[in-house]
Specification:
By secondary structure, the chain is an alpha/beta fold. It has a single domain (2-126), classed as Rossmann fold (3-Layer(aba) Sandwich). Helix content is 48%, strand content 14%. The protein has a five-stranded parallel beta sheet, sandwiched between helices. Helix 5 packs across helix 6. The longest helix has 13 residues, at 95-107. The two termini are 14 Å apart. The model has no long low-confidence stretch (mean pLDDT 97).
Length: 127
């Protein structure tokens, strides 16, 4: 199965946070699954760190090094994603979430998220 992790799911997984559901953790750890994180999530994390709205257990550099060493692939933003985003109904206002939703829809990825707003867009959500 192919999964796209929402930003909070990535952080919780990388930090061993119990907020991540056991089901989600098992799917992320399953070597038979392909896991992705949007480059938008990396951007979101860096912005929140710079605004002092997020503190990670390790430095951001260490977090990124661990991410690169993991089996989680970084999904770039493509023109197809931007085009799809321009046509996405404006039901959810968070720009990072909207981009992750579009990437899940465009790439046919299940999204690992606790956010109930994702389901509004008929994207396949896993938690």
């Amino acid at each position: 199965m192919n999964y796209l992790l929402d930003t909070h799911s990535l952080i919780w997984f990388m930090e061993g946070n119990s907020m991540l559901s056991i089901k989600a953790q098992k799917e992320i750890e399953n070597p038979e699954n392909t896991k992705y994180i949007s480059i938008a999530s990396i951007w979101e994390i860096s912005i929140k760190i710079s605004l002092n709205k997020l503190t990670l257990q390790k430095s951001f550099e260490e977090f990124l090094s661990l991410l690169i060493a993991s089996e989680i692939k970084i999904l770039p933003i493509t023109l197809a994603h931007a085009l799809h985003l321009s046509k996405l109904e404006f039901l959810h206002k968070d720009p990072f979430d909207r981009l992750i939703i579009v990437q899940g829809l465009t790439e046919t990825l299940r999204i690992i998220t606790k956010d109930p707003n994702f389901a509004i867009y008929n994207v396949e959500v896993y938690w």
